[in-house]
Amino acid sequence: MNLTSFSGTPTFFGLDYLGFHNLRTIYWNLSAAELVEQIILRQEGCISRTGSIVVKTSPHTGRAPNDKFFVRNETTEQVIDWGDVNRGILPSQFDRLLLQLQAYFQGRDVFIQDMAVGSDPEAQTTVRIITERAWHNLVAQNLFIRLIGDKLADFSPVFTVICAPGFQADPTGDGVHSSAFIVLDLEKRLVLIGGTAYAGEIKKSVFTYMNYILPKKGILPMHCAANTGRHGDTALFFGLSGTGKTTLSSDIERKLVGDDEHGWTNHGVFNYEGGCYAKTIRLRKELEPVIWKAAHRFGTVLENVVMDPLSRNIDFDNSSITENTRAAYPIEYVDNYVETGCASSPKNIFFLCADAFGVLPPISKLDIYQAVYFSFRDTQQKSRVQKQAWEKNHQQHFLHVLLRHFFR
Fold first, then answer.
1. What CATH code is assigned to 6-30+62-217?
2. Catalytic pick from 109, 259, 260, 378?
3. Which of 35, 231, 267, 316 has its CA 20 to 30 A from that of 395?
4. Which CATH number fits domain 220-407: 3.30.830.10, 3.40.50.300, 3.90.228.20, 3.30.70.260?
């Protein structure tokens, strides 16, 4: 690959493994300030009065589960629960999409962030995020674990994400559901995202890969938040999007481990991430001071949040774009956080429920048998802030949690 036109800090491991050629300028591991400059120059977003970046992702303002596919091959055939949730796609269809993306990027600028995922050194892996837009690179830098020095210079990606929202798929010819697609090839350790600018697709694709590899190492992957008290007591907060994981874990009296994705090993829990992706609709300084402060910091990305174009003030109450407004910021923007990203095994576990049917009391202390029952029959409400495909309907469903690890 010709690197005569690049900016930033390239790593030794290039892009030839992806078949990318004839790129215009490669913006490699730019700093937050440099990415902000590119975002403004390219008119991808606006800068608020306090320095946060405001972007819009319409028409996709949430994740699109119907557009997510896994390559179905010998590696994945027996290890994925295929069905309406985990949809399969042929290897040849994945290769067709990759070939089209190779052609699409020719003559275009690309932005690259080389990052790590997993705070525990024994479980950590590397991920390369390649994006068409600068602001997606800034989100990746905010959310994943940043590398410096020799770790960055000697970087070699284990997993790669390519995000090209400007590329639209052909559902008939490409074997996907719509013009948007999120396709994971777990054998090639590569994910292709197109037709949607919603940054949550990048985040969840990386964590899908982690959730695939960690059980093989004897580690329980968990969709939960975690924090610790002054005596080192760890609490976990399980719940779907919008049930309060980030809000409850961002407690000024306790140290934040992480707000969304964790692993549980024999010696404790660890955060996958290096940042937070907080829901901000109707955010209040007096109720959520930690998130409020982080949302107004320089370099934070506010996704689908409404801003007054004259005063540049943020209106967190405005849901005219979507209820699913988000703030992506590095965990360092939280004053009270665990720097190692690791903590002891939990003393307390909370199951957060969006119960619109009055089945559960507001708060209950469960014994071990009740915990098992409600984990398998945990009444949740699919709210419109969770997924784009659910925005018009509220439905009851059941949250299933793999519990056998709790009894070992």
1. 3.40.449.10
2. 260
3. 316
4. 3.90.228.20
